[in-house]
Amino acid sequence: MKKLIAASAAVLMTVTACGSGAYDATEIPPKPQPKAAAAPAAPVPCTDKTNPLASYTPEGAMPQPGAMPAGSYMKKIFDNKRLIAGVSADSLHLGSRNPISGQIEGFDIDMIKAVAKAIFGNENAVELRVISSPQRIPVLKDQTVDIVARNMTINCARWKDIAFSAEYYRSGQKTLVPLDSTAKSTKDPKLDGQTICAPAGSTSLDNLKAENPNIIPITADTDTGCLVLFQSGKAYGISGDDTVLAGDAAQDPYAKVLPEKAFSAEPYGLGMSKAHPEFVQFVNQVLEQMKADGRWMASYNKWLAPDLGDLKAPPAPVYGRPITP
Asked: What pLDDT is recorded for position 43?
């Protein structure tokens, strides 16, 4: 037995020695530097010719923190001692868990914290509930959460089920592929027959199918799920909002976002229940303040500018949607 143990130890030492420094370090190709963010594309109008970006017009003076109007949904949130928000925890730069602090952080999270501060005077009076893309509308319809900030595109179909704030960011869809890919766009025939992942329940999946019907679409419940499929070789690429893909590329030095113009307009809105239009109006006032006092731009510069480039100004709000029962 002693001879067997000694022999095993010798083999282990040999294997360890062979793997300790016999290979040269793998060279990581340099990442292209981000250019200034392109001008946002125009959203697709609804079939009834209404503007999908039109939210509820704010009315009156904004209440002070801790002094929410009696009977309002903001007062209910205040009495509940926390704002409950549905967010992502795996979209780097938008909403992701910091591996050191354990806290969820990002551009979307900053929007939520601003709403909490406006209600409580404390941006940390928040309960963040991690949800997947397909869960965004159901948790608002059953009012499991008060608000959703999860890179959700404002569109006509979703307005039938939920309400949106005014637009707080304009994204656009592109596709991420291996660094050595010679494809130039999602429409490129070189991607025909390739498996491309998009989150289930997202507008990205429909846009991808329309942009290149010859690709093979596959899905995952989360953005990280798509990244795992890509890194394991089960998906050749990922298609989605440029904000999400920037985070994916930052995590994988062997991936790149195709140098194409965005083939969709993805205006982000904070999702809320249609049952509480006064809360939507309040959130619109919060967003206006953030854009006016520089907090919005500071958040963009911190989380998104390093990968997406400089931006001159946040998107302007559009109002005028009638409040209906």
From this structure: 67
Full strand arrangement of the beta sheet holding 104-105? 90-91, 95-97, 104-105
- Alpha-carbon span 64 to 62, nearest angstrom: 7
Secondary structure (DSSP) of 251-270 = H-TTEEE-S---SS-EEE--
Please report the pLDDT score of residue 21 as a whole number: 47
Q: For 216-252, give the DSSP string.
A: EEEEESSHHHHHHHHHTTS-SEEEEEHHHHHHHHHH-
Q: Calculate mean pLDDT across residues 130-159.
A: 95
- Helices 107-120 and 295-303 sit at what angle, rounded to 10 degrees? 150
Q: Which CATH number fits domain 73-170+266-308: 3.90.1720.10, 3.30.70.1350, 3.40.190.10, 3.10.100.10?
A: 3.40.190.10
Q: Which residue, among 68, 72, 152, has the nearest Cα to 108 in the 3D structure? A: 152
Average pLDDT, stretch 268-278?
A: 97
**Environment class of 313 (CB within 10 Å of its CB; exposed 0-12, middle 13-18, buried 19+):** exposed
| Spatial contact of 223 and 197, defined as CB atoms under 8 Å apart | no
| Coil, strand or helix at 109 | helix
Name the pTM for this structure.
Answer: 0.80
The two domains 73-170+266-308 and 173-257 share their CATH topology (first three levels equal): yes
15 CB-near residues (< 8 Å, 6+ apart):
none
